[in-house]
Write a structure and sequence with these properties.
The protein is mainly beta. It has one domain: 3 Solenoid (Pectate Lyase C-like). It contains four helices and 22 strands. The protein has an eight-stranded mixed sheet. Strands 1-4-7-10-13-16-19 form a seven-stranded parallel sheet, with no helix packed on it. It is globular, with a radius of gyration of 19 Å.
């Protein structure tokens, strides 16, 4: 019994909790859950203008990222000082001043990121709202729920890369049981994208392997083809709502006939009202 209590206590201690913090302008990630411990909770925080990533989940299992406000102001080159950048002309450090919103990752092998819930977050004007970084071959999005979040893209052209609402790499085919449900993603600048997906080269529609889309609202004011589909690293195609819907249905991962809404006729306020829980 004593050993069991000790084990439960250690498990509780390892479940880190970040709550009600305001984190900004760090020289590194804003909030970071790192290592193979599990059960980290990141809730009700404000994280903005941090270096590279505002909320970073690296190698964590059972992580919950919920009800956070995340945003990025326009980068100011004057904020780059004492960083020993030998080649400032390449813009790589300036690029990171507009951080990622939420990034999951596996930097070390074996990949242990899995069973995550990323829900009810508001992400405004960040480089990519939600994305994954697979530094090792066995990394991927494994049993991940991305739901009830609102992502507003920057009203600007990306520096060296596209600003994107949600980016889903192919991750060596390791993605499985990924659900994107009831999210609102909106863009206004013509050079921004709502969704960026990567598939296996020469394998049609493989970018949808392991993914399910349910009731999301995709909205763009100026880009008629706001979805980027990548054929590995060989090529990329910009497509419209209808073509994305056809590709999604070909994999059986897209329930409903009107899943992707028309970019002109969508009413975000009406859609948001339908997604919000009714008052009790």
């Amino acid at each position: 019994m004593v050993l069991n209590l000790i084990a439960r206590l250690l498990d509780w201690i390892m479940r880190n909790k970040f709550s009600a913090n305001t984190v900004h302008k760090n020289g590194g990630e804003g909030l970071l859950a790192y290592g193979s411990s599990s059960g980290t909770s990141i809730k009700n925080n404000i994280s903005y203008d941090n270096w590279s990533v505002n909320i970073y989940i690296d190698g964590q299992a059972e992580c919950i990222v919920d009800k956070n406000l995340i945003f990025c102001n326009d980068p100011k080159p004057g904020d780059l000082y004492n960083n020993e950048d030998k080649t400032p002309q390449d813009g790589k450090n300036l690029r990171r001043l507009r951080a990622e919103g939420i990034m999951s990752a596996d930097e070390n092998s074996p990949g242990t990121f899995k069973n995550a819930e990323i829900t009810n977050n508001i992400i405004i004007s960040c480089r990519r709202g939600i994305t994954h970084y697979a530094a090792v071959k066995d990394s991927g999005l494994k049993n991940v729920l991305i739901a009830n979040s609102t992502i507003i893209l920057p009203d600007a052209k990306g520096q060296g890369e596209d600003y994107t609402g949600i980016r889903i790499p192919y991750n060596n085919g390791n993605n499985h049981d990924v659900i994107l449900r009831n999210n609102i993603i909106s863009g206004s600048h013509p050079d921004t994208y709502l969704l960026d997906m990567e598939g296996r080269p020469a394998m049609s529609n493989s970018e949808f392997n392991g993914l399910a889309f349910e009731g999301n609202a995709w909205h763009h004011l100026t880009n008629p083809k706001p979805f980027k589909i990548r054929n590995g690293r060989l090529s990329a195609e910009d497509i419209d709502f209808n073509k994305l819907q056809d590709k999604c249905k070909a994999q059986g991962r897209c329930p409903g006939e009107k899943f992707f809404l028309d970019s002109v006729s969508i009413n975000l306020e009406e859609k948001a009202g339908k997604l919000m829980p009714e008052n009790e």
